[in-house]
Amino acid sequence: MKEKTEKRRGRDDLRREYDLSKLKGVRGKYAARYRAGTNLVLLSPDVAKYFPDEQAVNTALRTLIQSAKLPRRRVR
Known about the structure:
Layout: H1 2-10, H2 31-36, H3 45-48, H4 54-69
């Protein structure tokens, strides 16, 4: 029994019907973007429902940045 278990571990786990020649990908497809400094941020689902696209997120963040730069009034 022990030999069969060891042989299974050494084998490839893909099924015979999978044609690996059809699996074509491009290695490093996003490497240039990564090097350029693109930031990808994953929003939580509850936050993402308020933003239909990336432009809406950028607008909201720019508004927040501008409001943070405004001088604060002192309350007595």
